[in-house]
Design brief:
The chain is mostly beta strands. The chain is built from one helix and eleven strands. The longest helix is centred in the first third of the chain and has 7 residues. It binds zinc ion (2 copies).
C-alpha cells in the first residue's frame, strides 16, 4: 500500500489515502490546460474507497470529448482544482497531483491528448504517449 496526502493552497480541503494509483499521467486536453493554469494537468486515479477527503469541495460538470461527464471538484475558498470524477471511471477519483504534500509520489506513466500538447509544454519523453485517450479509457 502506498500512502499519500495532499491539500489545497488555503488548507480548506485536504485528503489522504493509501492505495496504488490505478493510472497516472499528464493530460494535455484543453479543459485540463485551462483548469491547471499550465500546459497540462498531472493526474492520478485511485479507488474512491481508499480515499478520505476533509472539507467541502465545489464541483462543476463538463462533457469530455469522449462523451463522459467529468465533474471538476475544487476548493471554494482558494479555487485550487483538487480531483475529478468521471462517469467513464466509476468508483475512481482522479486526483490533481500538484496538490500532493509529496509531489514525487506522482510518477507519470502516460501522456494523454498528447496531440494537443503546446509548443512550450511538450509531452514528457519518458511517458507513453496517446493522441487522445488510452484505449482502455482513463
Ligand atoms: Zn483552499
Ligand atoms: Zn484532460
Amino acid at each position: 500500500m502506498a500512502e499519500f496526502s495532499g491539500r489545497c493552497l488555503c488548507g480548506g480541503i485536504s485528503y489522504k489515502g493509501e492505495s496504488e494509483p490505478v493510472f497516472a499521467g499528464n493530460c494535455h486536453c484543453t479543459d485540463c490546460r485551462k483548469a491547471s493554469g499550465g500546459g497540462h494537468m498531472a493526474l492520478f486515479a485511485v479507488p474512491e474507497s481508499g480515499l478520505e477527503v476533509a472539507g467541502e469541495t465545489r464541483g462543476y460538470d463538463l462533457t469530455a470529448d469522449s462523451g463522459a461527464k467529468v465533474t471538476h471538484h475544487f476548493c471554494p475558498n482558494c479555487g485550487v482544482p483538487m480531483f475529478n470524477t468521471n462517469t467513464s471511471l466509476p468508483g475512481l477519483k482522479v486526483i490533481v497531483a500538484s496538490t500532493l504534500d509529496d509531489p514525487e509520489f506522482y510518477k507519470p506513466a502516460v501522456s494523454i491528448f498528447a496531440s494537443r500538447a503546446l509548443s512550450w509544454d511538450q509531452p514528457h519523453p519518458s511517458t507513453q504517449q496517446f493522441d487522445t485517450m488510452p484505449p482502455t479509457g482513463g
